[in-house]
């Protein structure tokens, strides 16, 4: 069993292509690329921590996407997810749903928005939300797991540790 992380897929959100200069001609192409990439590396027994901003589609279309993605999926709600209830997200295929950041493996703070960590604090924050803005990315204390920074593919937890030098 492996653990992967991903953030800010924005399924169905055509404007995110323009806002973040994503290399896709349409939302459908973007969605298909993320789905194909996910299915190419995540297996059914793997864990995927989704760090928010999942989908702009309705419940039925979002459920069709999420239920067909392999892995045991945990969602930390992003700013675009919070208008829908935890029940909504569980119904569409997430095993766990968290409104607030969580501590992963006793040390890693996993969140949608980056958290404040000063250089004296021993923690590492894996987050999304910033998209292609890499203000904190790949430092000793922060990793931005937005899809723009991880080639639109879930990233293995150990790969994050390697990238930040842990």
Structural write-up:
By secondary structure, the chain is an alpha/beta fold. It has a single domain (3-163), classed as Metallo-dependent phosphatases (Purple Acid Phosphatase, chain A, domain 2, 4-Layer Sandwich). It contains five helices and nine strands; from the N terminus they run E-H-H-E-H-E-H-E-E-E-E-E-E-H. It has helices at 14-19, 27-41, 59-67, 86-91, 157-163, and strands at 3-6, 47-50, 72-76, 96-98, 102-104, 108-110, 124-127, 142-144, 155-156. The strands form two sheets. A five-stranded mixed β-sheet has the order 4-3-2-1-9. A four-stranded mixed β-sheet has the order 5-6-7-8, with no helix packed on it. The two termini are 21 Å apart. The model has no long low-confidence stretch (mean pLDDT 93).
Overview in brief:
26% of the residues lie in helices and 19% in strands.
How is this fold's topology laid out?
Elements: E1 3-6, H1 14-19, H2 27-41, E2 47-50, H3 59-67, E3 72-76, H4 86-91, E4 96-98, E5 102-104, E6 108-110, E7 124-127, E8 142-144, E9 155-156, H5 157-163
Parallel strand pairs: 1-2, 2-3, 3-4, 6-7, 7-8
Antiparallel strand pairs: 1-9, 5-6
